[in-house]
Amino acid sequence: MQMNTPPRSTTRTIRLTRRGRIALVAAGAVVAGTAVAVPLLILRAEEKPAKPATLVIPEGWRAEQVYAAVDKALRLPSGTTKKAVPGAHLKLPNDAGGNPEGYLFPATYPVPKGATPEKMLATMVDTANDKFNGAPIAAGAQRNAMNVYQAVTIASIVQAEAATKADMGKVARVIFNRLERGMPLQMDSTINYALNRSTLRTTLQDTRINSPYNSYQRMGLPPTPIDNPGEQAVRAAITPTPGNWLYFVTVKPGDTRFTADFAQHQRNVSEFNAQQRSPSASR
């Protein structure tokens, strides 16, 4: 049987020259370098991408606060967003007169690349319209003999006045009861808005300021919302809690007292004032 194996004398051993050995070493180095680079590329691919920038608008913020937050998020000079409002062509109710207060809906918004103040404000207003003009809110406003803008205005007062979400319906009822009886609202929150401040202490002098937002002297609702209310405050404005209350005061945290009796309200206010004078209130 023939094996066809080449004779031993014809087999040659390959010997590398010095140049060949250098070339082989260099090639090995390239392969080794590639082997190291691949894991590095894999690690980089597995790194988590950076979270997109967002802008958080809390419930109850005023338009001025929203403008400042947009300026900061977009790294723009202070006042830029406020100046952009007239040219933003926002889809506001006719009653708003171009003022977006109340319609800069509180939410968390993405800040995409190339975002502008006009686009950010338009997104907030569009979100508000989607929320407010839907069947539940619009029908609720009509059921209470008011339009949506008036409901949002009441909601903004509720948002500012209610100490807790559980109190929102009661505060809304006080507003309705006072309006139905032809009483001035006498809400400190509207005074604070007129004076561009936030405080629990309203003086007699404060209640005498000449402003359409002075609900101690002016009858009815203020001309615009006084902040940007959340959805729960708007729902409270269209479905107020049943009750005959005309007065309320938060004597201390967690203790808001509602009453229809003026004498009882005066006693509650006296207790509130005593709490404010106590050393613990100033801490």
Secondary structure layout:
Layout: H1 18-46, E1 54-56, H2 63-73, H3 80-84, E2 108-110, H4 117-132, H5 135-143, H6 148-161, H7 168-180, H8 188-194, H9 231-238, E3 247-252, E4 255-259, H10 262-277
Antiparallel strand pairs: 1-2, 3-4
Helix pairs in contact: 5-9, 6-7, 6-9, 7-9
Which structural traits does this protein have?
about 280 residues; mainly alpha; two-stranded antiparallel sheet; two-stranded antiparallel ribbon; disordered N terminus
Describe it.
The structure is a single chain. With 283 residues, the protein is mainly alpha-helical. Helix 5 packs parallel to helix 9 and helix 6 packs across helix 7 (168-180). 26% of the residues are buried. The radius of gyration is 34 Å and the shape is globular. The longest helix is centred in the N-terminal third of the chain and has 29 residues, at 18-46. The chain has 10 helices and 4 strands, in the order H-E-H-H-E-H-H-H-H-H-H-E-E-H. The strands form 2 sheets. Strands 1-2 form a two-stranded antiparallel sheet. The protein has a two-stranded antiparallel sheet with strand order 3-4.
Quick take:
By secondary structure, the chain is mainly α.
Low-confidence stretches: 1-43
Measured distance between first and last alpha carbons: 110 Å
Strand order of the largest sheet: 1-2
Radius of gyration: 34 Å
N-to-C SSE string, H for helix and E for strand = HEHHEHHHHHHEEH
Structural class: mainly alpha
Give the overall shape, derived from the CA principal axes: globular
**How much of the sequence is in beta strands?**
5-15%
- Helix percent band: 40-55%
Largest sheet: 2 strands, antiparallel
Q: Number of helical runs? A: 10
Task: Say how many strands there are.
Answer: 4
Mean pLDDT: 86
